Amino acid sequence: MDKPTHLIEYETMLLGRHQQLTAPRLLDDGDRLDRSAYILLSRIRMAGPMSIGQLSEAFGLDPSTLNRQTSAMLRHGLVERIADPEAGLARKFRITEEGERRLDRERRRNIDGVDRVMADWSPEDVAAFAAFLKRFNTDIERLAGRPWPRP
């Protein structure tokens, strides 16, 4: 029997659509993080201070893209530059207290949204879904050669 991967493709397309439909509506609060800041801050929190080169390797993005994103985060006080003790003049990005506060707030909002969507799900169903999502993500990371640190 062929695997019904076309069903997964379709549902992940819809999941992306749902995120796009809700994100602009929620951005009326000036305290919201944009998607790139949320993901970068999450990665720096898990891995510790990171350089542009390390971020480029972790995300598979061009350093110029990361320079734009980190510059915006610097302007908003979400990260600060610190010396890299292992690389001479190189600098790393570290989350500020403001960045921590806003990341925690954004994560709480996201979890609250997922809680609303899954209000009628049993704890077992939520755990099973989380396990399948983790497996799906870790397989993507394995194929890309870019594992994501997890708590």
From TrEMBL:
Pfam families, per the entry: MarR
InterPro entries: HTH-type_Bedaq_tolerance, HTH_MarR-typ, WH-like_DNA-bd_sf, WH_DNA-bd_sf
HTH marR-type domain span: 1-138
Entries under PANTHER family matching the protein: CONSERVED PROTEIN, HTH-TYPE TRANSCRIPTIONAL REGULATOR RV0880
UniProt-recorded name of the protein: MarR family winged helix-turn-helix transcriptional regulator
Annotated source species: Actinocorallia libanotica
Lineage: Bacteria, Bacillati, Actinomycetota, Actinomycetes, Streptosporangiales
